[in-house]
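Shift notes (night). Ran Glycerol-3-phosphate dehydrogenase while the centrifuge was going.
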Amino acid sequence: MNNLRKSNIRKLPKGTFDTLIIGGGINGAVAAAALAAKGVKVALIDKGDFAGFTSSNSSNLAWGGIKYLESYEYGLVNKLCKSRNHLMRSYPSTVKEIRFLTSIQKGFRFPPAFIYMGTLLYWFMGRLFTRMPNYLTGGKIKSLEKVINTQNVSGGFEYSDAYLQDNDARFVFNFIRSSMSYGCIAANYVESLGSTRKDDVWVTKAKDGLTGEEFEISSKVLINAAGPFVDPLNELNEEKTDHHHVFSKGIHLIVDRVTDSNKVLTFFADDGRLFFVIPMGPKTCIGTTDTQVDNPYAHVTEADRQFVLDNVNKLLALDKPLTKEDVIAERCGVRPLAIKGTGGKADWVQLSRKHAIDQNAQHKYMSIFGGKLTDCINVGDEVAGIVKEFGIDLPYADFKWYGEPDDSVRDEFFHRAKLMNFDALTPATSSEPLTSRFWRRYGRNAINMLEAIRENPEKAELLIENSEYLRVEIEHAAQREMVTKLEDFLRRRSKISLVVRQEDILAAPGLREACEILFGDEAEAKLQEYITSVGKDVSPREDVVA
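Came back to this:
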């Protein structure tokens, strides 16, 4: 049923694009958005779904890198703080300030007062953009947050950073959607089988992962933004680079909310690494681990799961210890860490998440290594600058390609929403008013969605309990968000499968209707595909499939 994807795949073999971007994670997404908005003819493919790998398994934090103060990377911290502030100004409804409440255990390698001085330095390096840090005694910590176990706490502090109020994958997809609005031809589930250079043009053999159809895409410039798969793609394309990746695996467990305070609780886990208890709407996200792995295909092991559970039970004073039965969902991904040279023997724990872009100007080829959400606007601008140096014209080089719509559009949406008393339709299970959620997710498109609800109030119904997604949102996803598999919608365009148990999703009476909206005649096949993919040996209730 996915007409947008089918239409774009038909366009990919036609003509010669200025640039082809391979990879639809955060680096590829911002590269596409920046280039397309500046008038470049752009194509983008991803062998899976957009944001389908590392970019959908983050901690949902957009932070200035306070931990890099310990390794004296002041230049990086300064740059990341500046990037964080810019991101917060550009996306005020999405990237928001949040307080981090940090507890320091007795016997830790640094006393609390010393680390607190570091938070003051961090605040100054952040240009005083956020609220000032506060030093806290153990007793004060307990009074502010009763859920923290302060028996072995010597002190702590509060400081501010930023977080994504919605899903990281949703944030990434909005750049993809923006790029398509500016003319980018993007398609998910299209794999690169390798690229060769012919007569100053890159010819990429591509394969539709759904139909098996193979075709060629021609482009003047090739951008390898394949995230953890940058190295094998470069090998396939016979391109040498200065950098390569090593991988660190991180996991998070999502459980029912353990505290009502909207703060990130920060600790140092048993291995000395940072450990977070992060608000996620009606749920809590706990992690992360930091384990070196040899390849990008990581999974949650029993040891990973137990490490997170042991630490959270030790650090929090819960009425009942958390067990794996309390886990609603799990996130697991690898951090691709950029390392220069051919060896992999560097102290990988000390490697930062800074990005690096290697370029071959003669071949008009670039590879993007590392990176994180915080620095994404810089990556987009940097890629656009390199493409211009490669000789590609940027007709609208100064066009601002990022950020929320201006205040006049925002005021129009909120005024219309107020006139129709839109927030009164907010489901009881929602973690925020509908107006806030719609504006953050859809921007100017939210105005049209309001009109659809005004014309047909049934479009404001909640199809899947606790999902925070109305019927009109699912219709919008079907038309404009290239949802190719049910998992794309449940896990990445939304965060339903992160906050609703799998069995509850499958048992939801509205799941069948959601599939019909998304996939039309293919609804049954897509539902069964999803059931198989999540490994549930269950038969959905009769009202789900009937």
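The longest helix spans residues 74-90. The CA atoms of residues 203 and 314 lie 55 Å apart.
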